[in-house]
Design goal:
two-stranded antiparallel sheet, 486 residues, 3 domains, mainly alpha
Length: 486
């Protein structure tokens, strides 16, 4: 009897193990149950009595903590704190060092005229000269250039806020700037409007967006603001930019949120040249230009070896380097070099690669009178002036004479090349070469012509690097005469 009970118990345990250890197929899903009751109503949208909240982006931190943290390293945070004491009574200064200031003031104003108050009632200007604890609290909350200074007020209904975001710099049809930087950097923007960047296709944004290089991933990285940001700022790699693309402007080069680089410049990385011209096969690199490194991210010849060799052998309707080969010229490399000839790259006595901050040092920064005081100013016309040269060259007369002599020398040599190739001068050659070279020119003529078109693409008529420019032209002329005599 005991054996029978034991056998039954063991059999029961065995069946339990089998059922637990072996899971059968899942059965069909049962019918959906009835919908549950509606939950309690959520809290009402946050409403503030103020439009501008301030408080150093405290409310923005909930969703944009990374961006706010980066912004905290910029000069905008302490824009008010760093004002000299006497400037804190000058409302023209205070206007751009605080948040929500929309009243009209002139330089030197210490109070706001009755008719000059802006429509908003809760920005810093609305508490200027107002006594009381609340006014003091509000002034303190709105010190510095905070998120709302560029992206618009968060209040009074927080959840209704849609940040104002602009990647553009141009003026609209009514002459109003589309740039978020304009309220405080209007002087730089007026200069930018005179620049080559601000006058692409006569500053017509609709025509600009019809150009072949907009909305073209292989071109827009250097031709549009959105393209450059996408390529040079990893935070925007997957960002959905607006359909309309913008001229290269303020936020192309400068990152409003980050102080990682000087002047909040997006990218100061080294730039390797696309075409290797030296005999050793080393890849020439543009480096050490300080703030000027942002310029050479785009201002270099974008032609690789296969493209250049194809141009020489077969011709091209886009002959020569991509325009704006300034970085290549500066370091003395990047042009097609005729085999068997030696090329001088840099003259130790005339080396613009040593200029402090490279491109910026010559094309932007010089002394100017600002608000009645002579101080260093970064001009955004990007046009070099002789005054920029005086930090290295003592005599203005000497500078002008050198530039005139170099221009005459380079022009004369380019004209010699043009005559070798059947033109009257280099201007006629430049106008007609693309149409002629593909079918009618011989390879040796293209080898000779490349030097001239490299100098045309650089745009400085040799001034960026007289040594390399003269070397290119001298070798091209010698080789051309040799080939023409055969």
């Amino acid at each position: 009897m005991k054996k029978t009970h034991l056998l039954v118990l063991l059999l029961s345990l065995l069946l339990a193990v089998v059922f637990v250890g072996c899971e059968g197929e899942q059965g069909p899903e049962g019918p959906q149950g009835p919908e549950g009751p509606m939950g309690p109503a959520g809290e009402d949208a946050t409403v503030s009595e103020y439009t501008f909240l301030g408080n150093m982006g405290e409310d923005c931190m909930h969703c944009h903590s990374g961006t706010v943290t980066q912004w905290e390293s910029t000069g905008h945070v302490n824009a008010y704190a760093n004002l000299e004491e006497e400037d804190r009574s000058n409302l023209y200064c205070v206007k751009c060092h605080t948040t929500g200031f929309d009243s009209e003031v002139a330089f030197g104003d210490t109070e706001i005229a009755e008719g000059n108050y802006g429509p908003d009632m809760y920005g810093y200007d609305d508490y200027v000269g107002v006594e009381g604890e609340e006014a003091e609290m509000r002034r303190h909350a709105l010190e510095g250039v905070q998120c709302e200074a560029c992206h618009g007020p968060l209040g009074p209904t927080f959840n209704a806020h849609r940040p104002e975001i602009s990647f553009s710099t141009h003026n609209d049809a009514d002459g109003n700037s589309t740039s978020s930087c304009n309220p405080c950097h209007g002087g730089q923007l007026e200069e930018w409007l005179e620049s080559g960047h601000g006058n692409v296709v006569d500053a017509d944004i609709e025509l600009f967006n019809e150009e072949h290089y907009t909305h073209n991933p292989s071109c827009d990285g250097c031709h549009t603001s959105e393209g450059f940001i996408r390529e040079h700022d990893p935070r925007y790699a997957d960002y959905e930019f607006p359909e309309e693309q913008s001229f290269v402007g303020c936020v192309t080069c400068h990152d409003p949120h980050s102080a990682g680089n000087a002047a909040q410049i997006r990218d100061l990385g080294d730039e390797q040249l696309s075409y290797i011209a030296d005999d050793e096969g080393d890849v020439p690199t543009i480096t050490g230009l300080g703030n000027g490194q942002v310029c050479v991210q785009c201002h270099h010849a974008r032609r690789d070896a296969a493209n250049v060799q194809g141009q020489i052998e077969n011709g091209s309707s886009h002959f020569g380097p991509h325009h704006s080969a300034q970085g290549d010229m500066l370091i003395g490399n990047g042009s097609y070099e005729i085999p068997g000839y030696e090329y001088a790259r840099l003259n130790e006595g005339f080396n613009h690669t040593g200029v402090e901050n490279g491109c910026v040092g010559c094309h932007m920064v010089r002394d100017a009178e600002v608000h009645g005081e002579v101080q260093e100013h970064a001009f955004h016309t990007f046009e070099p002036e002789v005054g920029s040269c005086t930090s290295c060259h003592s005599s203005m007369t000497e500078i002008e004479a050198f530039r005139a002599d170099l221009n005459t020398e380079i022009t004369g040599k380019m004209d010699q090349i043009a005559v070798l190739l059947g033109y009257t001068d280099h201007v006629e050659m430049e106008e007609n070469w693309d149409a002629d070279n593909r079918d009618n020119a011989e390879p040796w003529q293209r080898e000779v012509a490349y030097a001239a078109f490299f100098i045309i693409g650089d745009g400085s008529m040799g001034l960026h690097n007289p040594t390399y420019a003269n070397s290119l032209l001298d070798n091209a002329i010698a080789y051309g005469n040799e080939q023409a005599a055969k």
